[in-house]
Amino acid sequence: xxxxxxxxxxxxxxxxIKAVTETIKSGKDWAIGPNIxxxxxLIAEYIRTKYCVVFNSGTSALHVDLLAYNIKQxxxxxxxxxxxxxxxxxxxxxxxxxxFADIEKENFxxxxxxxxxxxxxxxxxxxxxxxxxxxxxxxxxxxxxEKHNLILIEDAAESFGAKIDNKKVGTFGDSAMFSFCQNKIxxxxxxxxxxxxxxxxYEKLKLIRSHGRLxxxxxxxxxxxxxxxxxxxxxxxxxxxxxxxxxxxxxxxKLIEMRRKNAEYMTEKLSEIKEIITPxxxxxxxxxxxxxxxxxxxxxxxxxxxxEYLAKKGIMSKVYFDPIHLTSFYKRLGYNIKLPMTEKISxxxxxxxxxxxxNKEEMDNICNSCKxxxxx
Length: 376
Ligand SMILES: Cc1ncc(COP(=O)(O)O)c(C=O)c1O
Hints:
Elements: H1 14-26, H2 34-47, E1 51-55, H3 58-68, E2 76-80, H4 85-93, E3 97-101, H5 112-118, E4 123-126, H6 138-147, E5 151-155, E6 163-164, E7 167-168, E8 175-179, E9 192-196, H7 199-209, H8 239-250, H9 252-270, E10 276-277, E11 285-286, E12 292-296, H10 300-312, H11 328-332, H12 340-348, E13 349-352, H13 360-373
Parallel strand pairs: 2-3, 2-4, 4-5, 5-8
Antiparallel strand pairs: 1-9, 6-7, 6-11, 8-9, 10-12, 12-13
The structure holds pyridoxal-5'-phosphate.
């Protein structure tokens, strides 16, 4: 559908076109090439981790991360249900069981108190998400993980650049995933990465990413024998895609600033509406507004009507997220559980358009339409 105001728009410029064109015109290194390493270095430098490994998607990155930690059948992994499906599917990919914990209402992240209740002797890891550019209560979750000797993997797909007390998300856990899918803070179309400070994990991630092959040199331009030392996949990011990542990540601080400015403008306009809650967090939580999500206090009926009202005006809005444990697939797997806060919040949330280039006229249109709906 063609929306007058879509939920997001990709920010691109001539530098992006130039970078991709150069790789194409070189007539070589479209699959494996030097931009992959360079992109990984820039990500690690920005997030402040020792290592980064890029993949063809955030989903593949999570999958490989769990393989590298040797998570397997019989293991339990604590995840939110209020997230994108990949967070819960990743444990299933490796035969483990996702165990859902509830969320807290401030940041929409895993509720540390409920996480504690879900730990059993089979629990191996916790995968919290940082929702839509907001850091979750990762410090509390880290304490729990350390106390119970669990692996902490941050699903930071939506929150590149978000910080708590100036420490970037992605540096709290044992490893973290970021996504570069087209609706994220910066994008390569599709793509993702794992960041970590563990050299051992770095080596394993690279092996599993590319066929379990020891690649001292570029496979396609080397005649050297290369051994295959483990089971692996082809989850590589192509060098063409990595070429786009280089100019994209260089813009990231500017893009975050533009998003934050827009969000501030929207929040000021919308805070007049007493029937909704705007996305304001604690002072030391630096959010990057991958999404601008409001809560309609009275719940689903009014929320759905607002969504319809906006749609009639050509303004796209969307529910992020409907709970995973209530999907047909997870019900068929036998999940018959109650997560009160997840269920409540998912009936209240509505994500409004947010992207760096959203202009004042569009933001006025969105906010005034919300005001009209609530009769202000
Ligand atoms: C919280 C979360 N986890 C995982 C993913 C999966 O990332 P990708 O779309 O790059 O596979 C996404 C992206 O949509 C996400 O929002």
